[in-house]
Design a protein that fits this description.
homodimer, mainly alpha, Multidrug-efflux Transporter Regulator, Chain: A, Domain 2, two-stranded antiparallel ribbon, 3% strand, DNA-binding
Chain lengths: 137, 137
DNA sequence: ATAATCCCTCCAGTGACTAGAGGTTCAAGA
DNA sequence: TCTTGAACCTCTAGTCACTGGAGGGATTAT
């Protein structure tokens, strides 16, 4: 049995975050000490590692809750997990595209900043006048 | 003079958001009607367009406040605006890199999902076992 | 005059934490 | 066994950029 501090060290998840995940219904300690402190099993640590990993990959708490539920039915078909991950991948790709468009716009704005005063600074002008933009956004 | 609803239509910024920006100190209406309703000038509308545009490009409220302050000193050197925009561009690029790494990882996880049951589903296994990952994250 | 629409303020909720106050428990050393 | 200090507990509030709703007043068109 591990204290919350030990679990935090093992998983890299901060102590208040572990408590937050508990409140969100992702994990709860297997036991409590006589003095009401959380005590985690090895299984709990594994589960928190799973959560951490999924968060690192950008899965939302709700999606993680679903993935945990799925993992509790090892004989169920895995379409569910696959669908969640694929949907997430699509979101990530969309986000990348969006950011690339921003990048291009910002690049253009920054590189054009030829002026020496704010008055003729392209950065300020481009922000004031949408007409200077190449794409809609 | 425009009502908040008209301004909203002209700029595409939602009414509660305009009020929120006011609370944040980005704009305030030039006047109030006798009945205490907000009345905006043409200049106010331009300013809100500036804000909207900057937000679309991902600038934070605080950065926008700085840009507005700069735009009020047209004779000042424009290094400030340039620096803010360049820093933002760097952030955007970093975010893109990060998301690309996620994309690669998720691609790998999803494409490997060969199993039919959760038990041997790569998605679940990859999340449980960090060792299956290619990169640190 | 009245109805419909708009506007006002204030409060609460979102997501995923993070930080602090004020108090209790635990583990290790004397 | 006692003490000390670190770690723990709960509860509340703050972050960012909004969004939505309640309950009531203002404006506008007919």
């Amino acid at each position: 049995m591990f204290s919350i501090g030990e679990v935090s060290k093992r998983t890299g998840v901060k102590v208040p975050t572990i408590r937050y995940y508990e409140e969100m219904g992702l994990i709860s300690p297997s036991e409590r000490s006589d003095g009401n402190q959380r005590r985690y099993s090895r299984g709990d640590v594994e589960r928190l590692t799973f959560i951490r990993h999924a968060r690192d990959l950008g899965f939302e708490i709700d999606r993680i809750r679903e993935l945990i539920a799925l993992s509790h039915h090892p004989q169920a078909p895995c379409d569910g997990a696959d669908r969640i991950a694929s949907a997430h991948l699509a979101e990530v790709r969309q986000k990348i595209d969006q950011l690339k468009r921003l990048e291009a716009e910002l690049e253009r704005i920054v590189s054009h900043c030829g002026g020496h005063t704010v008055e003729d600074c392209y950065v300020i002008r481009a922000l004031s006048d949408h007409g200077l933009c190449e794409h809609e956004h």
